[in-house]
Design a protein that fits this description.
mainly alpha; about 475 residues; globular; Growth Hormone, Chain: A; 16 helices; about 0% strand
Length: about 475
């Protein structure tokens, strides 16, 4: 029976929000967070260096596009078993095993880069690099659902939104430092093997930290493996319209609007920072998105939970699309005709637009990840997290492939340029990259309108808690 509120018997005040940094009193969560940061730092360095090395060796947008495909194919093939494994086996051991697999792949890239000459055997280097990327793709596919479900058990339900916010912040901080450090190492050494070797060390450090986490996943009674249990995650997502809509929005926004894969082309041929600072411009552009995201993390952490989370998410993805369009146009070839400025000035304009993309994208990440975890029962959390990883991971990698292919189509193919080097080819490749980014940004805006119409539940979704 509920008491009626009267002037003499007022209703109890709402529970105060938890301290912004109270979750850091949890030692297991702190170990996990530091391990995630270190592992992500090394992987961001590796991806930046590999993009640079592939473009330096092959001078082709297709070479960059195949990076996305190499990571996406194992994700598609392994998502169902990865989710099943995360729900049927010890999640901590899955994280440790996947981390070791990433270490082995990084060691392979180190040896491949160090012993294959930069100006020779391009096809051989690509063969080994793509094969090792497949190994990385398999390891990440098993790591992501286990890791997402594991962190939920380390904190209370009330702490989960802020834990996810700081978890995202740790990843974004690694995205700031990783590309920047990789760019400096490339600039100093004119090679990438040392970056890959650093990731080996970082991976081993993350392994040791996760091994020290005291929490152990309590494995529920194992269901017999069947097609029904494998597709449980997909069925749950399809039936929950809120989760389905937010995942779909994020997936297509990243698929169409992501410009990260083409940043080597922008940094070298469209808005170079300095002629002699090879690799630094690329590192800074890659760091811009996570810098914006980190600023957003601290803004969210010091505010109450979002009161209109659905509308905020839709608005932020729309801003992401507009900023992507402006990034593609912010150069001397396009807007420079109306606003004359040096390439260095356009570089910093583009940097600011990428930071804005990172800030608004982080809102989408926090909303989506929080909803996936709090709306999913623990016995299904691994499989649902695997579906979430599949949607978002494949959109990242497929978006990278799409960007590379469309840049090649709008550039050298459309302009009938057949050589793979020289100023004419570089100009055609730059044109293709610009068109690819601008068209993708407009596609993102179309997706926002479509999702808001198909899933009105998202527009109406309220407080994120």
């Amino acid at each position: 029976m509920h008491e009626t509120a009267t002037p003499d018997n007022p209703p109890p005040p709402p529970a105060p929000d938890k301290p912004a940094y109270g979750v850091f009193r949890n030692a297991d969560f702190v170990r996990y967070l530091v391990a995630r940061f270190i592992a992500a730092l090394g992987m961001q360095m590796l991806v930046t260096a590999l993009d640079w090395e592939l473009y330096k060796r092959a001078h082709s947008g297709l070479a960059l596009g195949f990076v996305g495909l190499s990571l996406m194919v194992p994700m598609i093939l392994c998502t169902l078993p990865a989710g099943q494994v995360a729900d049927r086996f010890n999640r901590k051991k899955i994280i440790l095993g996947s981390t070791l697999a990433l270490v082995v792949a990084s060691l392979g890239l180190t040896l491949t880069s160090a012993f294959i000459d930069l100006n020779q055997s391009v096809a051989t280097f690509q063969m080994f690099a793509y094969a090792l990327l497949v190994v990385i793709g398999v390891a990440r596919t098993f790591l992501w659902p286990a890791s997402a479900a594991f962190v939920t058990a380390l904190v209370t339900r009330e702490e989960l939104p802020r834990a996810i916010t700081f978890n995202s912040g740790a990843f974004q901080l690694s995205c700031v430092l990783g590309p920047s450090v990789a760019g400096v190492i490339i600039w100093l050494t004119h090679g990438a093997w040392l970056v890959y070797a650093a990731n080996v060390i970082f991976g081993l450090t993350a392994f040791a930290l996760v091994a020290g986490v005291r929490h152990e996943h309590k494995i529920p009674p194992r269901e017999p493996v069947s097609l029904k249990t494998l597709v449980t995650g997909f069925k749950f997502v399809y039936q929950n319209k809120i989760i389905l809509g937010t995942i779909t929005l994020d997936m297509f926004a990243v698929l169409l609007g992501g410009a990260v894969t083409l940043l080597p082309i922008f940094a070298e041929d469209i808005i170079p920072l300095h002629g002699g600072a090879e690799g630094v411009g690329l590192g800074l552009l890659r760091a811009a998105i996570p810098i914006g995201a980190i600023i957003c993390v601290f803004f969210i952490a010091h505010r109450p939970p979002l009161q209109k989370a659905g509308r905020a998410m839709l608005l932020c993805v729309a801003i992401f699309g507009v900023a992507t369009i402006l990034f593609g146009l912010a150069n001397r070839q396009c807007l420079g005709r109306f606003f004359p400025a040096a390439d260095g000035a356009w570089f910093w304009v583009a940097f600011g637009l990428m930071a804005l993309c990172g800030a608004v994208d982080n809102v989408s990440v926090v909303v989506r990840q929080t909803l996936v975890q709090i709306l999913t029962p623990d016995e299904k959390r691994g499989r649902v997290s695997a579906v979430n990883s599949l949607f978002i991971g494949t959109s990242n990698e497929l978006g990278g492939a799409e960007s590379g292919f469309t840049a090649q189509l709008f550039g050298p193919v459309l302009h009938h340029v057949h050589e793979t080097a020289g100023p004419i080819y570089a100009q055609a490749m730059a044109t293709g990259a610009i068109l690819s980014v601008v068209v993708g940004g407009f596609g993102t805006l179309v997706v926002v309108l479509a999702v808001a119409w198909i899933w009105p539940e998202i527009r109406r979704y309220g407080k994120l808690s």
